[in-house]
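Appendix B: complex inputs.
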Amino acid sequence: MSTRVGVVTFPGSLDDRDACRAVQLAGGQPVPLWHADADLRGVEAVILPGGFSYGDYLRCGAIARFAPVMTEIIPAARAGLPVLGICNGFQILCEAHLLPGALTRNAGRRFITRDIQIRVENAQTPWTRDYADGQELTVVLKSGEGAYVADEATLAGLAARGQILARYAGGNPNGSAGDVAGVVSEAGNVVGLMPHPEHAVDPLTGPSADGLGFFASVLSAVVTA
Amino acid sequence: MSTGDLTETGMKDTEVAETGTNDTVTAAAATPDREQPYAALGLTGAEFARIGDILGRRPTDAELAIYSVMWSEHCSYKSSRRHLRQFAEKAPPTRVLLAGIGENAGVVDIGQGYAITFKIESHNHPSYVEPFQGAATGVGGIVRDILAMGARPIAVMDALRFGPADAPDTRRVLPGVVSGISFYGNCLGLPNIGGELAFDPCYAGNPLINALCVGVLRPAGLKHAVATGPGNQVILFGSRTGPDGIGGASVLASASFGGRGEGAKRPSVQVGDPFMEKLLIECCLELFAADLVVGIQDLGAAGVACATTELAAGGKSGMSVRLDSVPLRDASLGPAEILMSESQERMMAIVTPDDVPAFLAICAKWEVPATVIGEVTETGRLEMTWHGEPVVDIPPGSAADDGPVYDRPARRPASQDVLAADDPARLARPADGAGLQSDLLALLAVPEAASKTWVTEQYDRYVRGDTVLAMPHDAGVVRIDEETGLGIALATDGNGRYCLLDPYAGTQLALAEAYRNVAATGARPLAVTNCLNFGSPEDPAVMWQFTEAVRGLADGCQALGVPVTGGNVSFYNQTAAAAIHPTPVIGVLGVHDDVRRAVRSGVGPPGSALLLLGSTRLELGGSLWARTVHGHLGGRPPAVDLAAERSLAEVLVTAAGRGLLAGAHDLSDGGLAVALAEACLASGTGAAVTLPGDPFTYLFSESAGRALVAVTPGAEAALTQLCAAAGVPAVALGTAGGESLDVAGSFSISLGALSSAHLDTLPVLFA
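Resulting structure:
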């Protein structure tokens, strides 16, 4: 019986299929979760995939945080459920105040799709435990509002507490403060990542298979827990 | 756009402009002499008279709206139709075509229980008026065409042409177009897998924005635009109807800019909402899966007018529609405006009465508004009411299928002889290696040949996780089946310079290039779509270009054994008297038995042997070298040899299937010189080559039917044998490796120098 990992589909979610495939390739069982159902279907971890939930109206992620499924995810996350928000999912987690900071328009003002390097800064989370601290990964960045912002004090606090999950290596592509590519909650179970590990799970269709470790990590974390 | 704008198009003194005034069928019969604004709506006096003959009375305003949009050049193909017949008449025998010309898009059986539907369409004029929304809704429109076939859209491509890259207007149009495509396509979750970007003064004021979409379906799930089964319900679903682009695509696309009446026919361009389109896609696919759809049609140009007439005509039935039940965004709209509105993100379905509740429930799940607006009848008439009063009563086929057909005069202009006589062989060629090097660097940096990364990185190529190859590879490759590796390859090509010199040969060269590009990835070419961009068909010289291009394409497809499955004609691409170069853009679809064997563009790993396949002659007419170095366009385009193209493709496909190729790249604009540089940059590896003859000819000639291949180590003999058996000339050029492109006896250019020449151009111009 493989581990059940929920993948939420909001109206406008786009990378839900890719996230399901990544879970499957890592050996887990992807479980589709529908935005309008306040039901987590017994999953042991949840992924909020990339896309443009609710058309990015108002602000990216601002409407999705109020979806019925989020009324289940938010308390579960506060209780320790491993949650990974990718791109738009990261934006939703920030809007839901499960993660600090916010995502804003890229420095270049344009949407960019690029194969980039990130450096894992915290390999102790349930989503990164298969990596080593300082390990560099090639993954895909594709976003128009991917620049992470937080005030200086927050950034310093995040760094001090090990809450910087990953930073861009080899150049900052979008103007993110402190080169931040991903952050983790203080409790360590909720992770937001702007680049897309689910697009780097097979060299045939992505720049590498480096992203598979995020999905493999959570499967082993859940089994161990 | 308000009704106030309509009055500016010449309706000021007529009743149609007064919303609320209801010009009924009864009123039309009673007031036969009332003046109607047919000319402002783009109809000729003869066409208007013909409507009267069909109906036995004057049309109502709503009927006039229907005929004016359905008989526009854009919807009726009235100038092109008699020529396009050749695609069917000369179609090569094929067992793979499930739906062809006349459907929303062609459908091809690729085996293993899958079918592919694909089509390319223009959105040229709207994208010039309002680049962002024009280009965005161009993507939206072609995606709905694919969806209407019962398919899941899986990828998009764009073939873009603009005026000079450094012209102020290009700096207005290009960034808007690119961000519009990026915005709409990215929000839909469709990977953008390739296309073209070209610049030429002839496209200043007439940019070409051609969007392609490809979708996948099960053959049994194929849908048609038919209203059958009396009593079946007509459901309009998607966005509510507003005053968007009333007469937009239809009138706009048929009226060239400049000259008489400038501004009179520039109504607002439609505004796109990709979020609604994404919901519409998922909603339709769930409706198809539940088998709740008898017939379906997307709403594009001419909106409700087009969808109702085509559905009713396709079903050889009648239809009654309550126009006042169409959900509106602007309550002041009257019947004619509702019929002509081009509000985006709408579809129309025919549904059995029993299935209506289930249909509406799925729409509700996806939060897509859906409304029953009428039903299928046995009358053979398309009847519409407005608050109970009849405002339309026409035979639907008269608007949808039996529009006017013109045999426009076509005449080869004398200027063709002048062009042909201007042989580029007289042009000064570089005298030494340093000259060859500087010409190559100039070609690599010219906007048309420069790296397109600044544009393509604004598009999502990864979403859906099935993109195997995208830009800058020769063709986009998408996996269809994860188990078997079955997949497709798609490429689009066009070359306005070649087509100006000889539209027949130029069109075949575009076809051959797309065919070659698909084969270079190892895919077997299977079928063709096309977007024919031309000036005014009322100009006999343009009409000659058009007839030659169509004849060339039909003959070419016959010779290559790939049928035309559908396409689009865009006329009136001209500003005042100046038409664009004739620019047919040809899309070729190929099949990969296993995408894991797809061949990348490049020189392969260091040590790979590099071979040039095909014959090289001194052919400079229309070449990138002649244009870039001398500003010259004249002479003859490269010779076309379709038998040689077939043999080359056979070698490329067989070699890829047997794993003999480490890289392949077709030769086109800029010849071997540009191909070598691109291949080195794609692989991040240099190459050392020795040219087998005159360096200038080998580097810059644009002879067709050639490819640069990198051979898998140890497979050299097998590939050489394969070429010999197929009669494809193969000559060893050298070896991949090192940090520079070395051409023995001529030059050595570092990868860094190649890269900066190639990469910097577009960011400097547009960032």
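The radius of gyration of chain B is 26 Å.
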